[in-house]
Specification:
Blueprint lengths: L1 E4 L4 H12 L5 E4 L13 H6 L7 E4 L2 E4 L1 H11 L10 H31 L7 H19 L11 H15 L9 H11 L2 H17 L2
Parallel strand pairs: 1-2
Antiparallel strand pairs: 1-3, 3-4
Helix pairs in contact: 1-3, 1-6, 1-8, 4-5, 4-6
Length: 212
């Protein structure tokens, strides 16, 4: 298997964590990225493989899968053990909904922080509202987590999706609210997983290199 990934791409990080959790050998192709040019020029393989010219893209023999959510689902069906989705229709729907929420609802607020503080293209004036929105999501997570170790019982893609965005929000200056102690403990639990630590260390090392 070959994964086209971006060195700072959080969507790619989701897939990398899933591959590591499942212990799947793969070739990692890190496409070029810089603060000034972002992903331009796009990697020629990505241009050929992804209609939106984005990473991540997974190539598995003749199969090409684009989009982090679809790739995680493909990996789960192709390599079911260890599972990264819960069992049962209702729990699986909950898991998918949380992952979707992280991608589609959280990420735009996180992007406000990234644009202002990484690319320098966004406005600091918009950051306080984004931080308030992200903290409101954390409080939703606090209620959703309850007394479980992970959101759906076992560790799943819901944890992966929420963690990559939340840990980045924290790194970019959005503190966890004080009234979310269970989410704080969950963050520590997820960060300590071998697969998560491996991938996030790599992303952080790339950030230190590319953002200096
Ligand atoms: N929904 C997509 C989002 C992928 C995405 O936004 N990828 C970004 C990097 S994190 C990208 O390739 N951007 C380059 C571009 O759009 O030109 C997924 O989950 O994979």
């Amino acid at each position: 298997m070959k994964l086209y990934s971006g060195p700072l791409s959080l969507f790619s990080a989701k897939v990398r964590i899933a591959l590591e959790e499942k212990g799947l050998e793969h070739e990692l192709v890190q496409v070029g990225w810089s603060r000034v040019a972002a992903y331009q020029p796009h990697h020629p393989d990505v241009v050929a493989l992804h209609p939106k010219r984005q990473v991540p893209v997974l190539v598995d023999g003749d199969v090409v899968v684009c989009d982090s959510t679809l790739i995680c689902e493909y990996l789960e069906e192709r390599h079911p053990a260890p599972a990264l989705f819960p069992t049962g229709v209702v729990e699986r729907a909950r898991c998918r909904t949380q992952e979707w929420t992280a991608d589609e609802v959280w990420f735009p607020h996180l992007w406000t922080l990234i644009a202002a503080r990484v690319y320098g293209s966004g406005s600091e004036d918009e950051v306080p509202d984004a931080v308030r929105a992200l903290q409101a999501h954390v409080r939703e997570l606090e209620r959703g987590l309850g007394t479980r170790d992970y959101f759906c019982g076992p560790f799943t893609v819901a944890d992966i999706g929420s963690f990559v965005f939340l840990s980045t929000a924290i790194a970019l200056g959005c503190p966890l609210p004080d009234d979310a102690p269970r989410v704080a403990a969950w963050c520590g639990r997820v960060a300590a997983r071998r697969a998560v630590a491996l991938v996030m260390q790599d992303v952080n090392a790339a950030a230190a290199r590319l953002l200096q």
